[in-house]
Amino acid sequence: MNKIAVVLAMLLAIGMAAYCNGKPGALHNNTNPIWKGTPRLLKTVPNGKLFEIGENTSAIKLLHVYGNMYQMGFAQGQLLKQ
After folding, report:
1. What is the SS3 assignment for the chain?
2. Which of 39, 44, 37 is nearest to 65 (CA)?
3. What is the spatial distance between Cα 66 and Cα 72, in angstroms, rounded to a whole number?
4. What is the dihedral of CA 24, 26, 29, 32, to 10 degrees?
5. In this predicted model, what pLDDT tens digit does every residue of 42-52 receive, in sequence order?
6. In this structure, are residues 34 and 58 in contact, taking their beta carbons and an 8 Å threshold?
7. Distance between CA atoms of residues 59 and 42, nearest Å
8. What are the backbone angles phi and psi of residue 37, rounded to the nearest 5°?
9. Span 31-74, pLDDT tens digits
10. CA–CA separation, 76 vs 47, rounded Å?
């Protein structure tokens, strides 16, 4: 009987947590323009490439890594070390 009570209490807590930050509000449209340029390759290492997308002050880095978890983490460290 105690196990059933614990499970019901957990389900109730999960259900109430759905609105822990208030009710869902109205949807907002994304009015930012879509960047349609070609990414610029900045650096390449085994299991990873670093690109830059955007222009001037709105440029951001784009990291592409592949392999197993260790290889991806090592490539990220090499590409973003500075």
Report:
1. CHHHHHHHHHHHHHHHHCCCCCCCCCCCCCCCCCCCCCCEEEEEECCEEEEEECCHHHCEEEEEECCCHHHHHHHHHHHCCC
2. 44
3. 6
4. -60
5. 999 999 999 99
6. no
7. 13
8. -80, 180
9. 888 888 899 999 999 999 999 998 888 889 999 999 999 999 99
10. 9
